[in-house]
Amino acid sequence: MMDTSLPAKPRPHINAISRGFWENCRRGILSVQRCDDCGHQHYPGAPVCPSCLSSRQSWAPISGRGTLVSWVRFHRAYWDSFRADVPYAVCLVKLDEGPLMLSNFAGDAPAEPTIGALLEVVFEKVDSDLTLPKFRVRD
Predict the structure, then answer these.
(1) DSSP secondary structure string for all residues of 33-77
(2) Low-confidence residues of the chain, pLDDT below 50?
(3) Are strands 118-125 and 131-137 parallel, antiparallel or unpaired?
(4) Cα dihedral across residues 8, 127, 89, 96: positive or negative
(5) Burial code of 43-78, b = ≥16 C-beta within 10 A, e = fewer?
(6) Span 58-79, pLDDT tens digits
(7) Residue 19 in 3-state DSSP?
């Protein structure tokens, strides 16, 4: 009998810099890295602040709200593990706090997402170790 199961989807590489972000996601909190010296907020995390080069960084909770800047619908599975999801939409969100975040739409993506649409984060639990932030259109 042939095995028709799909391989596991790629997982984010969680390291010392990104760990706080993923721990917050597991708790249902969206966060960005904030410089403890100058207050600059950025995403993704970095070893030093892109504004002042301080290495004093922490993960700060944010509203989880943003605006749709761009989106794309993939009709090809570049990884076999995404074959069952095709077509799927990826969105670029400008968070209300400033940084940009690349993610997916939660649930069924709008048929024709509107640039400028107001979005909010929802969290999708993959397993006990990983929760992904995704976005839906706000009412």
Answers:
(1) EEETTT--EESS--SS-TTT--S-EEEEE---EEEEEEEEEE-S-
(2) 2-3
(3) antiparallel
(4) negative
(5) bebeeebeeeeeeebebbebebbbebbebeeeeeee
(6) 999 999 999 999 999 999 999 8
(7) helix
